[in-house]
What we know:
This protein is α/β, with parallel strands linked by helices. Helix content is 29%, strand content 23%. The chain is built from 11 helices and 12 strands. Helix 6 (174-186) packs parallel to helix 7 (204-221). The model is unreliable at 278-286 and 351-356 (pLDDT under 50).
Amino acid sequence: MTEAVKRENLLTVNDLKTYFPTDEGVVKAVDGISFKIDEGATLGVVGESGCGKSTVGRSILQILDKPGGVEDGEILWRTDSLDGTSMVVDVARQRPNSKTMRSIRGQDIALIFQEPMTSFSPVHTIGNQMMEMIRLHRDVSKAEAKDRSIELLQSVGIPNPAQRVDEYSFQLSGGLRQRAMIAMALSCDPKLLIADEPTTALDVTTQAQILDLLRQLQEQNGMAIMLITHNLGVIAEMADDIVVMYLGRAVESGPVDEVFHNPQHPYTRGLLRSIPSIYGSDIKRLPSITGTIPHPFNRPAGCTFSPRCPDFIEGTCDSNEPAFKSMDGTSQMVSCFLHHPPQGVEVTATEEGTSD
Ligand SMILES: Nc1ncnc2c1ncn2[C@@H]1O[C@H](COP(=O)(O)OP(=O)(O)OP(=O)(O)O)[C@@H](O)[C@H]1O
Ligand code: SF4
Ligand SMILES: [Mg+2]
């Protein structure tokens, strides 16, 4: 969580575009997003289903479904070269199976996601899979790798780890499986953990335990976390910074405290209304966002949020695309004409809009 420590930048994503060619046309799943993650920090990525959150995470790891791929932009990852000095790799320019990418995936960046069953093979024990992962990147004996696996299972709170290490993933409960997936992801001390809806499938109590665990592990290891979720409550608890995504782009970003207390984009405001304790006591009188997110094929003209926006400005929002720009006097960035009106256009927010 927020602390006054100067952190080095770890990842910088600049104007990333990731497209999936399909028989029906090109799906522009991510269409120009920029953000940064610093060492040891947590970035929350939020937005409704289909807005491109997972595609951003998978682009950073270059594990996109073929023939999808990064079309444009930069994914600048700071890593250590063989002589121990720091260097920056543009992941967007790497082939998915290159040596560099395999090394980044195994040693630098790990992924956990909603369904742990699919990250484990049903025919190998959990321990064997962890040992394989550890030995792929470290010159250790089988016995040492097994000891490390047991240690990791213990560190994520799995009871009787020396026995569980020889079990199969289907023998564990949902919560324990999620813990085992985290242990597996941590087996190479990643600098960044991409957690894609890590608790969505879990009951509320287990969800809280897993989030606590991630926080503890982050404190111990100093790793950064990119936490992808549709749940702003989770972001409020866990993240330092937030990126709000809509239809493949960022519409607002900044420190969580600033964005939650002073949301500037009508979409962010709409999302925040779904968590009453954070947004305020007037929840019953505030409407939620109308309509649904369009498919990327049906990207609206002008501002992509315009068909759902309570602050829509006719003749401006439907014909121009707002740029994603810094807000004066804050660390927030926003793409909305209410804040950056085109020349000669005067804007006034609605009561529900930006006036408070
Ligand atoms: N392999 C693919 N082929 C074609 N389209 C895809 C593919 N993967 C994702 N998409 C499309 O890209 C868009 C973004 O999908 P993505 O899974 O990144 O969204 P998301 O924000 O993670 O959604 P959710 O909250 O449901 O997980 C969606 O319109 C989706 O249908
Ligand atoms: S640019 Fe216009 S339509 Fe888009 S969010 Fe701002 S006010 Fe709403
Ligand atoms: Mg997703």
